[in-house]
Amino acid sequence: MLYNFDEIIDRHHTGSLKWHHTDDTIALWVADMDFRAAQPILNTIERVLHHGVLGYTKPSAALYQAIINWHGSRYGLALDKQHILFSHGVIPSLALMLRVFTEAGEAILINDPIYTPFMTKVLDNGRKLVTSALKEVEGKYHLDLVDIEAKIIEHEVKLFLLCNPHNPGGRVWTADELEALFSICKKHDVAIVSDEIHQDLTLSGHEFIPFLRVAKGYEHKVVSITSMTKSFNVAGIKGSMIFAKDQGLIKKIGQQQRLSDEHDLNLFAYEVMASAYEQGGEWLAQALTYIEANIELTLHFLAQHLPKIKVMRPEASYLIWLDCSAYAQEDQRLYDQLRKAKVELSAGIQYGNEGHLKMRLNVACPTEVLMEGLNRIHTALNNDDIKQ
Ligand SMILES: Cc1ncc(COP(=O)(O)O)c(C=O)c1O
Predict the structure, then answer these.
(1) Which residues of 155-185 are buried (b: 16+ CB within 10 A; e: fewer)?
(2) Measured by CB atoms within 10 angstroms of the end CB, which terminus of the chain is less buried, N or C?
């Protein structure tokens, strides 16, 4: 079936986090899409509702098989049922992994910039936060491997939290980059947890490689976490998967989950997950085509109207990282000026020091809405007030 991503669906007064402003502000910030979900997913929810009994539910054999097939056929990741654990979300799983791999006070290394909860969860859980700035070379972020190894040694780092594909920079780390990172971590006995929630949003010309594929012989120290929520725009459903391949590690994760009985998902999460992986491919392919067109349009608009913004072309996701330093001197003023022009982006500074004077733009919306948003960004940044 052909999906209509141009349809404008009003999300005000639905409890939407993204469209929380009651005025006519255009929401181009938090990472969800303004598109209706795939028809097979909506049909599945209707089928469950029609049955009418919403009792305790177990993951079905079909769900395990759907997960195994999806990750095997798309990413060459060989999984068995026993390698798959469920949890309420990628960030809850990430927090759980801090407890699996580290003790209070131990050091955890992350990149800067990074999706904010990577920082807050480390600190909330009483671990020591160590950061390694990504190096920007020709409009693209790179891991600073020398700095990573030096920080591991200096702080006796126990765990590296990787974001692949990277949010907010949009990098899909290559096999060479992952292998180089892996060999440093292995050399110093550092565990790796890889947040792969944006995996299915990898854009044409790039290949997503699950970390478990490069971690051969070191599976007792490696976990991948992913979800159907970002890929299929069902974030409100909640639910994620933890992949681990070592028996001892799987047991340890299970024990940690049982401490707070965190392992069961709700009925809708299991059902949506299965239908997404069994029948959602067609919707995803069409959504990605639409997103790629919106990305091209945005890059063209910015080059024409705001040429001093340094734009990082994403290799995955619908999030575009914008360096606005030529147009502003203060983070708060930059954000406020955009808000005054009735457009909301995510302030870069919340992703770490490297986010200074940057903004993250979400283009997963109907093109008409995006165009209006871009015009408002143009108005905001051309205003002389922002530079004072
Ligand atoms: C890298 C990354 N990890 C995790 C999440 C959130 O995952 P969850 O809602 O499953 O906790 C997001 C959401 O934007 C994200 O970008």
Answers:
(1) eebbbbbbbbbbbbbbbbbeeebbebbbebb
(2) C
Q: Can you give the pLDDT at residue 387? A: 59
192, 182 contact by CB (below 8 A) = yes
For the cut 70, the answer to whether the pLDDT of residue 316 exceeds it is yes
Domains (range + CATH), the chain: 26-39+282-383 (3.90.1150.10), 54-279 (3.40.640.10)
Closest of 179, 161, 182 to residue 225, by C-alpha: 161
What is the 73 CA–ligand 1 centroid distance (Å)?
A: 24
The confidence band for 61, taking pLDDT boundaries of 50, 70 and 90, is very high
Nearest by Cα to 211 from 77, 69, 72: 77
Q: DSSP letter for 36, please.
A: P
* Rounded Cα–Cα distance for residues 339 and 278 (Å): 41
Q: What is the position in ligand 1's atom list of the atom closest to the CA of 167?
A: 1
- C-alpha to C-alpha distances, 235 to 140, 230, 370, nearest whole angstrom: 28, 6, 21
Is pLDDT at 59 greater than 60 in this prediction? yes
Q: 134-149: per-residue pLDDT in tens?
A: 999 999 999 999 999 9
Query: Which pLDDT does position 384 carry in this prediction?
Result: 63
